[in-house]
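Dear support,

I submitted the protein below through the web form. The confirmation email said the job was done, but the results page showed an empty box. After a refresh the structure appeared. I'm attaching both so you can tell me whether what I see now is the final result or a partial one.
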Amino acid sequence: MRKYPSVGSLTRRTAHDYEVPGTKFVLKRNLNVVIPTYAIQNDPEIFPDPDKFDPERFSVENSKNRHSAAFLAFGDGPRNCVGLRFGMMQVRVGLATVLRSFRIETCSRTPDPVILRKDSFTLSPQGGMWLTFKSVSK
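What the results page shows now:
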């Protein structure tokens, strides 16, 4: 979800004039602002070695050292995703169910590196994501 968020950006509208801290730049009331989720979550200054899959990035200790809006897969603030907890639970249950019966591996058709489609609203790999599911004997 960090490397490939479901949407590449979030759009918000300012409720009032807002002076950006440390600058003289003012975002006027009712201005639409685009927040580049994909760019933020793949910024090497925020997430060193951003192409590496490292679940430890989200340990309690590591999360404390990072701005709260550095991970925006579910948005942030009063307009964040109402289904955040349910979505996370659903993903965990789904993964546990699949991983209980299958080992998932890459295959010769799996893209490496992943090239994202440029004509899609959601982030998705060009040509699809090809994986092999091998049954785990019980």
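Response: this is the final, complete result; the empty box was a page-load delay. The two ends are 30 Å apart (CA to CA).
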